[in-house]
Specification:
heterodimer, A: about 200 residues, Protocatechuate 3,4-Dioxygenase, subunit A, 9-stranded mixed β-sheet, two-stranded antiparallel ribbon, 1 helix, about 0% helix, B: about 230 residues, mainly beta, 5-stranded mixed β-sheet, 16 strands
Amino acid sequence: MSLASDDRSAEGRGGLNRPPLQATASQTAGPYWHLIDFPEWADLLRSNGPNAAIAGERITLLGTVTDGDGAPCPDAMVEIWQADPEGRYDGDFHGFGRCATDQAGRFRFLTLKPGAVRAEGNAFQAPHVVVSLFARGLLKQLVTRLYFAGEPLNEQDPVLSAVPPDRRGTLIARPEGDGAWRLDMRLQGEGEMVFLEI
Amino acid sequence: MSYRLPAPETQPPYDAPDYGSTHKRHPKQPLIRIAQTLSETSAPRMRPSLYETTHNLAKGPGWEAQGERITVAGRVLDEDGRPVPGAMVEVWQANAAGRYNHERDQHDAPLDPNFKGEGRIFTDAEGWYRYTTIRPGAYPWRNHHNAWRPVHIHYSLFGAGFAQRLITQMYFPGDPLLPLDPIFNCVPDPAARQRLVAAFDLEVTEPEYALGYRFDIVLRGRDATPMENPA
């Protein structure tokens, strides 16, 4: 497709509230996306990576991705995006990671615990990690967040507050010791994770 | 600043009965709408110094892939027509025989030892990208009886905000499999579907070397007005 420049005129908008162009349709990543899987990207602290010299609390984020039958999704792409330990996105920390789930549906990231992120006004969001899931059978990504159990700011976090209390737990990782935090992600059915429209 | 939601009919649903893999993988609860925060409007600064580029998937030192060489070029823009500079574009695809260089692809078609099928490029200041590869082949899948995927190249894009993150597929003009493909046809709006089809372009075509295709990609645009009922 080539976008003709006249499509950008006001007449081409099809209505006042329509942007001149329309976002390209999403399509599934399919089962063979591993051609762009680089397992080292799941280790945000890798010695030859951009964060090797950045100080902070080292943590492991782990869990499983399961389907409506509770069966593992062995071909999902999990991506994370997070702030640095000071809660900033504009520092030197490169808060992006990608991990392929294994045959048991497991993912695992090594990273630094993010700080509280500034929200509207003088408020702060609780420390959190943005999570995107791509997979065969997902025609567009599912977006969610991972929060940390026990954080005082969880009580007033604007996103957690938008989630019905009985489902908030699906976004809150639990400590497993040695800096590991677990969040299992069920795509459908009992204990279905909360997914966000952003 | 926040990113506008795409027009619903331009995007596929999560639950698509004709595409079997969606049955057990789509959420049954509605998504919860949130007001975008810095976490959604910021994005990782992808750059060639961190992520090595590959402009030519078809040829390297001492090797050349089998198949019909093609060059694909296009622009990455937002919905307001602004170029997205420095966008990281990842592409992956099957080989000319319709087989992925992937252990789980068991289709009985020859592997090409000289074709990995993966590349990475960055858009320039005007949003342009360009790479050379070979035209992939169609291949069967088991969604339904005699199901074949139309010829396609997978795209993964990172924009200026994580809300702009996009994975899609580029199709080829005149492919007789397009009207039969549940994945392509999951997009409700026919015009939005057609925008997934590249155009043959003689200007992109390189004489004596490769046929050219043009494929532009639009990422979500910025919303001028704040959300009415932010979470």
